[in-house]
Amino acid sequence: MGQRIDVKDLNIYYGDFLAVENVNIEIEPNKVTAFIGPSGCGKSTVLRTLDRMHEIIPGAHVKGEVLLEGRNLYAKDVDPVEVRRDVGMVFQRPNPFPTMSIRENVLAGVKLNNRKINKSDADDLVEWALRGANLWNEVKDRLDNPGVGLSGGQQQRLCIARAVAVHPQVLLMDEPCSALDPISTLAVEDLINELKKEYTIVIVTHNMQQAARIADYTAFFNLKAVGQPGHLTYFADTTTMFNNPQNEEAERYISGRFG
Amino acid sequence: MSSASNSATTAAGGKTADKVFKGVAYACGILILVTLAAVALFLLFRAWPLIGGDQAQNVAAIESFTGNKAHNFWQFVGPLMFGTVLVAASALIVSFFISVGIALFISHYAPKRLATALSYVIDLLAAIPSVIYGLWGGIVLVPAVYPFWNWVATYFGWIPIFAGPAANPPRTVATVALVLAVMILPIITSLSRDIFLQTPRLQEEAALALGATRWEMIKLAVLPFGRSGMVSASMLGLGRALGETMAVLMILSPGLTYSAHLLQASKNQTIAANIASQYPEANALGVSILIGTGLVLFLITFLVNFIARKIVEKASV
């Protein structure tokens, strides 16, 4: 089941540079929350703080709290590796491991930390994850072929299968469809609708129609000028955001009269 | 060259520059082939008395080289080939893991400043002439390393290659391998480091986002990506070790056997060191024989590179 995320007074830094300031947001479990906003406003940066991927860049750090079901992910005794097992991530471009077969890709996360899994459990898990990613019927006869032999859309669904195979509570998606054609995009969007029954989903997208189609809640990020920190400008349920936004900046951005 | 590219401001000049550059590039490419062919022909030509000359004289010359131990060319060059490959392979085995370790440390663990400093030091190692390594090996390492080899022979002597007693002074394949390992370390390290740094960020993040530790990320993303690069780097290192002359000559106590007891002295000799040690005193026929062994070394190196290329091709499919 999905878990809720509460972000409290989060300031995100790259070295000394404050990239995003003072984010407060409540992300509901088993809903899709979309982050939208102009380039450079920090929406991907915020997303990457939710599984502590932000800090893999040297000098990057945060101040504030991210609570996953009440547990602060940035508490001193929390291991980021453990956080990333609970919070899965799908990236802008599909990134299956190039030397691995489809099957090995799905199992890559499961086999980490010296965990052993016997063959029949592994078979079941592969089928379950690939079915969950709506990919099973397309690849079931060639599970031992390389993952990179699939089409872009299939690869992205393979990456989703790989992410769900470790049974996360939350799935983060950083513009998952930006490298895909419209048909593959539709397949992934349908999948996101299915996945929210099991997981809390946060998605960054540049495509406002996409946000309107799939998100339950939408957060609009903006920045005053280049070099200034980004911030969360407006957060609302998606219907309000796109039909009757109570915020002028958001309204201008959505109606395309931005800047 | 520079005048051609300076005049390349107009469209016509651009075409000329293009042609000039094409010509220069072709010439460079062909030059390397011509050089290689020239070396091969030289070796073959100078070694010809050995192949086509009076065999009775050859036998006599080889017997005088080896103190009557070898009676024909293959008996002579066989142990040398074995020694060459043994020394080079031992050096590569020692160097490979250390080099990859250093490369990974520089590319993925060390803070930026330390990484820069370390890269600099490693590149500096490559600039030290091999005669210096030979001196250092002979004067410093040989006396200092004996207790270690003695310890190895005592506790790991049950492994055939470490069978004792350890020679003292240890002018042995094991000591030479250590020195050669240091000599080939820079090239393997810097090439591996470059390839590790090129690992696609997306692959690394894919691994980390699945909950991989740093080491697991390296196993999942960095090493598979760098595999073919590591093989090529090793082969370049091996090539250098196969041909290394001075350091071997100055450290190793030579012998002509097929022994793989790394800790015992006077068992092996390499082709290159053998040429260097016997060349000054050899007559015309002796030189031909030595050049014949050089031809064999040339072929071994060629073969090693060929095999490496095949491995890389297979790995990158």
TrEMBL record, chain A:
The keyword Translocase applies. One of its GO terms (cellular component) is membrane. One of its GO terms (molecular function) is phosphate transmembrane transporter activity. Keywords: ATP-binding, Hydrolase, Nucleotide-binding, Translocase, Transport. GO terms for biological process: phosphate ion transmembrane transport. InterPro entries: AAA+_ATPase, ABC_transporter-like_ATP-bd, ABC_transporter-like_CS, P-loop_NTPase, PstB-like. It comes from the Bacteria. This is Phosphate transporter ATP-binding protein. The keyword ATP-binding applies. It comes from Bifidobacterium tsurumiense. PROSITE patterns: ABC_TRANSPORTER_1, ABC_TRANSPORTER_2. NCBIfam families: 3a0107s01c2. Pfam families: ABC_tran. Its EC number is 3.6.3.27.
From TrEMBL, chain B:
InterPro entries: MetI-like, MetI-like_sf, Phosphate_PstC, Phosphate_Transport_Permease. It is found in: Cell membrane. One of its GO terms (cellular component) is plasma membrane. The keyword Acyltransferase does not apply. The chain crosses the membrane at residues 24-45, 80-105, 117-136, 173-192, 245-264, 284-308. It comes from the Bacteria. It is a multi-pass membrane protein. PANTHER family: PHOSPHATE TRANSPORT SYSTEM PERMEASE PROTEIN PST (PTHR30425), PHOSPHATE TRANSPORT SYSTEM PERMEASE PROTEIN PSTC (PTHR30425:SF1). Belongs to the binding-protein-dependent transport system permease family. CysTW subfamily. This is Phosphate transport system permease protein.
